[in-house]
Amino acid sequence: METFYITTPIYYVNDTPHIGHAYTTVVADILNRYHKLFADDSFFLTGTDEHGQKVQNAAKARGLEPLAHCDEMVLRFQAVWQELAIQPDFFIRTTMPFHQECVQRCLQVLFDKGEIYSDEYEGWYSVSEEIFYTEKDLVNGKSPAGKEVQKVKEKNYFFKMSAYQERLIKTIEENPYFIQPDGKRSEVLGFLKAPLGDLCISRPKSRLNWGIELPFDSEYVTYVWFDALVNYISALGIHTQGPKGDIFDRYWQSAVHLIGKDILMTHAVYWPTMLMALNLPLPKQIFAHGWWLTDVGSKMSKSEGPVVAPLDMKDLVGVDPFRYFLIRDIYLGNDAKFSKELVLARINSELANNFGNLASRTLNLVQKYLDGAVPAPSETQNETKELCILALQCAPKVRDHIRAMAPNVAVEQIISLLTATNKYLDTLAPWKAAKSDLPLAAESLYSALEVLRISAILLSPVMPNKMATLLGWLGWNKPPNFEDAASWQLLSEGTKVSKGEVLFPRI
Ligand code: MSP
């Protein structure tokens, strides 16, 4: 049994969730469900990042107190996650008292160790990224990502991030899987060629009071990224009693931070150096996925223009097919275009025509020729033997690809098995055989039922509702688990199967 701890970024509650937020969270949910299917000890954390300038501004614009604004926005996030069948093991809010206490404990530890000092600060701040820049970081008077910046001059507290530069470089060089994909790893190493500055980790309350107070100076609050990153460990109950007790030792070293590439540097530079200073081990991996792009190839985001509302897509195609699309059409790590046409094309070809068609023809023929009951298993034909081999290879392949963070390749294995089974039925043509050689028809239908059973188990992390329905039609009432997906001929003779309806209507 392996241990797996998957996190998403915690999202700013300045706006409602959009497709990008939904994407990371759906992928994390699917990975968590796969690991649970493999009987791994798996924990999935997501949540909301509620402090900072951006959220304070959003609350102000709505004429609300920050916390009242957050309370309302959080419900919207949670409602969307529920509609998308996302089931985190814990949902963290940075305004939760245990988290705030943990952040303060971390700050105090660093302060006591001399890792934090105060100094006069002069620089530039990007509110939309919540990041400080120095004069030389700016490109044409804007942040390197092209965001507006404002001048800031004040006394602040700094974390001695620069002291950890060499150790960080060494860690990344020695652990090729620490930052993935490889391109992102090189980007971080490239960035670390220039000297690393110290990190400004405070804001005077006179300018921003929506944050966690510094335990050693009540005139200041913590910089939002220092607060936010700590969520990954506060949720595990380090330093304070977390929501699930002390599960830090159980999960931390198998942590995978799934993030969008927009926040790579904060995760790959700020966070590991903070952990080093705190004397804590590093997470196992930081995995930066790509972006969903608009038709014209720019990142989908509210500040850049209209974005797809996740629930509109879900209402159009259904929650399970939508989840399927999100995981299927993109290599984790690459960018991909998002459009309604692409969603429909993928769903119609693979789910309606391939998977759905196999289910309906098999169940209909079993109804028609075998009284709606599972026949006895048999393997007299070479084609059947070959199909059995393919089917038995599928589950281990899926597991390998999921463990390698390649969920689209995992799903492709199942789709190939379904394609092969449709061809197999075309070859053995049970609708013809039933009239002259019933045992032969029964053999091919039994095998097709087995493939449906295996595929439904293996796709249940992606499409939990539809797969539960299909398993029900097959008369398979056990909760999905890996062992059953890795075995052949488990359906027992005589089990009643339903005729079923259309599993995936063409859209
Ligand atoms: N609050 C910080 C994260 C703190 S984590 C300790 C933050 N929040 S955010 O609300 O801006 O969310 C950013 C994340 O949303 C990205 O990292 C990514 O996971 C997701 N996405 C937002 N737009 C996206 C796309 N167009 N495509 C894919 N995912 C993107 O940053």
Please characterize this protein's 3D structure:
- With 507 residues, the protein is of the alpha/beta class.
- It has 2 domains: 3-289, HUPs (Rossmann fold, 3-Layer(aba) Sandwich); 339-485, Isoleucyl-tRNA Synthetase, Domain 1 (Orthogonal Bundle).
- It has helices spanning 19-37, 53-61, 66-83, 97-112, 165-174, 182-191, 224-229, 231-234, 248-251, 264-277, 310-317, 319-328, 340-370, 382-403, 407-428, 430-436, 438-459, 464-473, 482-485, and strands at residues 3-12, 41-49, 90-93, 116-126, 131-133, 150-159, 179-180, 199-200, 202-204, 213-214, 217-222, 255-260, 285-289, 292-293, 336-337.
- The strands form 4 sheets. Strands 3-2-1-12-13-7 form a 6-stranded parallel β-sheet, sandwiched between helices. Strands 5-4-6-8 form a 4-stranded antiparallel β-sheet, covered by helices on one side. A 3-stranded antiparallel β-sheet has the order 9-11-10.
- α2 (53-61) packs across α3 (66-83) and α13 runs antiparallel to α17 (438-459).
- The longest helix has 31 residues, at 340-370.
- The protein is elongated.
- The two termini are 40 Å apart.
- It binds 5'-O-[(L-methionyl)-sulphamoyl]adenosine (MSP).
Rounded radius of gyration (Å):
26 Å
Question: Largest sheet at a glance?
Answer: 6 strands, parallel
User: What is the residue-averaged pLDDT?
Assistant: 95
Measured as a percent range, the helix fraction is: 40-55%
Query: What ligand molecules are bound, each kind once?
Result: 5'-O-[(L-methionyl)-sulphamoyl]adenosine
The number of distinct β-strands equals: 15
Question: Unreliable runs, pLDDT <50, ≥5 residues?
Answer: none
Query: Based on helices, strands and strand pairing, what is the structural class?
Result: alpha/beta
The quaternary organization reads as single chain
